Amino acid sequence: MSAFDDKFYRAKVAERVEWGPTLWTVRLRIAGDFKFNPGQYATLCVQEPDGKRYERPYSIASAPFEPEIEFFLELVPGGEMTPRLYKLQVGDELLVRKSAKGRFTLDTQSGRTNHLLVSTVTGVAPFVSYARTLRKQWKEGQFSGDHKLFLLNGASHSAEFGYCPELQKLGSELPWLQYVPSVSRPWEDTAWIGETGRVDDIARKYADMWGLNGSNTVAYLCGNPEMIEHVKGILRRVGFQKEHLKEESYWIPGKEA
Fold first, then answer.
1. Which domain covers residue 185, as residue numbers?
2. Is residue 205 a contact partner of residue 234, using CB atoms and an 8 Å limit?
3. Is 107 inside a domain boundary?
4. Which of 86, 116, 198, 206 could disulfide-link to 219, CB 3.0 to 4.6 Å?
5. Do 136 and 45 reside in the same domain of the chain?
6. Strand 114-120, strand 217-223: pairing
């Protein structure tokens, strides 16, 4: 094995769930001790038959205690990486860099105990990891519930939420988790009876409703870079400073996924 290979674990697709024609979750069984903190990302690598490798980072949706690593992925037609990942079925193999990275972790050091989590589609992944981790700690008496999560999850259609049933169940069970999914094209999703509008447009409404402001809250924005810029502007206007705004953009405009 080369020095390059020493940086990777081998992984096998253990489970795959389709949420729509371009959205799916995948669980990987990794042949190694892969450690991470909720909110971090793993770098996945696909090797072609000719030996060429393609890699890209993806946020982890599973919690560190789970035996498999889970990702919520969106196919970008014509992209460099996601079409290769999309082809992988249960039993297929790929590579994962041994070190998880990223600073999009829950801030437990600033003294602020309110956490506003704003996401679009697959951007909900790190927040699922937060919620699963804290739920286990809550059940085991290791978390007192002093940190409160307020999660807004936006998508064009309800089929794009993926984790909506799980998060709604957690929100009903856990006093420290509020979850609001919002559909931005309700006229194309007439069965949807929940909140409507882009998360950009409802962020201020819910921040005010929940009493979240620049003096008592840390905000976390994940997903579409346009949404991130819009919500950052909204929150700055109500007093959020740079050090209390965390962001994780899922792609850079003009770059392939």
1. 114-249
2. no
3. no
4. 116
5. no
6. parallel
